[in-house]
Amino acid sequence: MGSGRTLKFAVCEVLQFAGLCVPLFIIMQRFAVIVAKVKTSATPPGDGSTAYWLIVASSIAYVTSTALLVWVPVKYMVFIKKKFLIGRKKWRPVTLVYVILSTLPCFAFLIASSEVQINNNLKHDTFTELPVSLVLFSLICIDVVERIRHCRLTGQANDMERDADIPSTVLTHVEQVTPVNTITPAVPGPAVPGPAVTTAYRLSPYAYTGPLRFLCASDARADVFVDSFVFWMDTVEMVRVAGHPLVYYSGWVFPIYIFSYLSCLRVVVMPHSPLLSSLGVALQDLPFFFVRVGLIAFFGFVTPILYLMKNLLVCLAFIYFNFMTKLRIFNTERMFF
């Protein structure tokens, strides 16, 4: 049992540290190649090799220093359960450190790569696929590891899922129901009280026990992977637009990467937290809507209309159901009393 826990702990730590280092090394190496080409093509030509190895050495020094001075101490304090870090488990300090130490410099070097090429009339690399996908995939991996590291990876799910904030699949709905008085019109007399129901339980609609019950297989630990990827789809699409040549070699990379980074900050809040709705609107859907409107106006349909409508409808639904329904004109209960 102890060896299994140690192995799981080691695997989780290696995956998270790899997610911290690998995107930085790849993006800074590609940035070093661009700077070397700029130095070589300059008039008079400079030493591109020196600039290349200087940037590579700087990336190694940055990763080493941040890992020793920030990453390892934060990990240590989290594992010994320092109250100022874990609190009531409303936020995740490890993901916050990752977003600051890895995602922020990666996006900064993506912007710098665009500006260097624009200023020197060079179109060498738009970072279209591997580096950008690797940054977001590493962020997804950090999110998944943080959510399932306290769960058992063998056997069936147990109560430890609560530590990872994974919802149960057995009881899906609990609500209070007030007593109901029914009146039988055919029999005159006082009203006959109906059954008083205090709590209503509704089991999962997929709880099937027939011969095809294997088709209804579901495990909350597996659902974490689906939820994590769906959580990032809008950000992935926005970052993908920045790789379009017309967009990348323009000033639009600034708002795209800045607002994409702000949307990444949502991962700091615990999953299924009540704050996620307002943060999703404020940090993602509202700014993404205006950025996409501008992109379509300047470059045409470089981004799908589907995501534009998603941002618009999410913002409108959030405002309507959380604020406008409280007004007297939309509150039908107050209108009749």
From TrEMBL:
Name used for this protein in its record: Transmembrane protein 236
InterPro entries registered for this protein in UniProt: Uncharacterised_FAM23-like_TM
Keywords linked to the UniProt accession: Membrane, Transmembrane, Transmembrane helix
Superkingdom in the source lineage: Eukaryota
Transmembrane segments: 7-31, 51-74, 95-114, 126-145, 246-269, 289-321
